Amino acid sequence: MLNRSAVVVRPAQPFVEWFAGLGLEGAPPRLDDEPTVYLVPPFDDEAQGLAMLKEAHGVLFDRELYTWCDDEARWPANRDYAMFRRWFQVVLLSHLEDVCEGPVEEEVPPDA
Predict the structure, then answer these.
(1) CB atoms within 10 A of CB 59
(2) Residue 72 to residues 50, 64, 88, 100: CA-CA distances in angstroms?
């Protein structure tokens, strides 16, 4: 078992509408897009997970926005926890098992 938990984040309708209003090129996010999974500090139950999410929502929100629009000036100004919960579907996973052989390694994107 890993010493991490996870948050699964998928766009919800308000996020899709925000992106559509930007007029950017490229395929817009869809409600059935593959979610992003973030490894987070471990938590044991839903209450601990929600407390962690309240603390980490800003980082997660920024990462999701940046994935679709790297111009921070076009991001919504008041990105609070309530807005995060409206803009994204979230699933908390408290226990992660690594069944792969070998160490977990971070991949560096080719354009980095």
Answers:
(1) 11
(2) 26, 12, 18, 37
Which among 30, 14, 2 has a CA at the least distance from the CA of 93? 2
Rounded to 10 degrees, the C-alpha dihedral 13/62/53/101 comes to 100
Q: Which residues of the chain have pLDDT under 50?
A: none
**What residues pair up with 39 in beta bridges, in sequence order?**
6
> How far, in Å, CA of 62 to CA of 71, rounded?
11
Instruction: Please state the domain extents for the chain.
Output: 8-93
Tokens of 32: 């059935």
Return the ∠ at Cα 104 (arms to 91 and 55), rounded to 5°.
Answer: 40
Q: Assess contact for 52 and 40: CB atoms under 8 A.
A: yes
- pTM for the complete prediction? 0.86
- Choose among 14, 12, 89, 91: nearest CA to 46: 91
CA–CA separation, 94 vs 45, rounded Å?
Answer: 7
